[in-house]
Amino acid sequence: MLSRALIKIYMNVELTDLLDAGVHFGHQVKRWNPKSKGFVFDHRQGISIIDLTKTYSGLEKAYEFMRETVAKGGEILLVGTKRQSQEIIREASANTGMPFCSNRWMGGTLTNWQTITRSIAKYKKYMKMESDGSLAKLPKKEGSAIRREMSRMNRNFEGIVKMDKLPAAMFVIDVNYEDIAVAEANRSKIPVVALVDTNSDPTNVDYVVPGNDDAVKSIRIIVETLCEAIQEGRAERESRMNQAGNKAVDAAAEEMVKEATPAVAEEAPVAEAVVAEVAAPVAVEEVAAPVVAEEAPAAPVAVEEAPAVAEAPAAEEKPEA
To answer: Would you kindly state where each structural domain of the chain is located, as residue ranges?
Structure first.
């Protein structure tokens, strides 16, 4: 776990930001859950006040956990179906590329994943039929029934249609409102990060972020901070993948060099022999001797014949008549 000073470099939020967003306002005292006593600062004017130092500490731990989870390749399911959080969760999913649930939690989404997967496959089939025009060719009654079913499926599976396996973790806004989702995550042994108010039970949550889960400003500042953690984790994962790819390329290059080395070693003696044969000194006597021997007898003959040609008698003059 990183130290507080190092995490502050990552987190672009301070205690004053949490105070300005109203994160410290809890529920009415009459709705107070005694199990939330650990992060309640005081009860004033009938309102429970949350200790923002506990909020900041919990946010640090949740931030680091989510960053590391995404860096290792895991996905985080963002859940917020209450009216105040629906649009914020959609925006967070669009910015991070994580699956989400903002309309209604489908019972069995985590504990009965195989059945949910078949329903998602059916929904994808209908979408493909609509895109390639085959849905329009069906009889009107059958086409209308499929479109009504698609509309219902879109509400249920819109955010998890691209999720091909169970998430590595889940982030929840208001554990009271999303009690079924939290129970399924606990049963599936999926870690839960949650924004927990004073009327909620924090014992079922692995990473508690105490705070106001009803005000839009409070929800937004917590979600945006944790979205930064997801984005940092994604960047770290891409960096690790690039480094792994570079190492694989280097290993392949070294392997190619090792495979080529024996061939070079086998060809080396042959090359050395050729070079030695070409560079070997030529025996002057062996090459020049036969040439001299052949040309030597010709020299005296040329010398003997020369005087004979020079001393040849002149033609006899005919006597005058």
So the answer is: 8-105+166-242, 111-165
Q: Report the phi/psi class of residue 189: left, alpha or beta, with left for phi > 0 and alpha for psi in -120 to 50.
A: left
Q: Which two tokens stand for residue 148?
A: 């009504």
- Give CA 81 to chain center in angstroms: 29
Top-level class of domain 111-165:
mainly alpha
| Residue 229: per-residue pLDDT | 94
DSSP 187-201: HTT--EEEEE-TTS-
> Helices H, strands E: what count in the chain?
10, 8
Tokens found for residue 234: 């994604």
Residues contacting residue 160 through CB under 8 Å, at least 6 positions apart: 77, 99, 100, 101, 109, 116, 120
Query: Closest by alpha carbon to 171, among 222, 242, 126?
Result: 222
Q: Please report the pLDDT score of residue 180 as a whole number.
A: 95
Bridge partners of 42, per DSSP, are 49
Q: Which amino acid is at 6?
A: L
CA distance 81 to 180: 12
> Mean pLDDT for each consecutive 10-residue tract of the chain (321 residues)?
45 89 91 90 91 94 95 94 94 94 92 93 92 89 92 92 93 95 96 95 94 94 94 90 74 72 57 54 44 45 42 44 34
| Count of beta carbons in the 10 Å neighbourhood of residue 250 | 10
Rounded CA separation 88/223 (Å): 8
In CATH, the number for domain 8-105+166-242 is 3.40.50.10490
Query: What are the residues whose beta carbons fall under 8 Å from the beta carbon of 274, sequence distance 6 or more?
Result: none
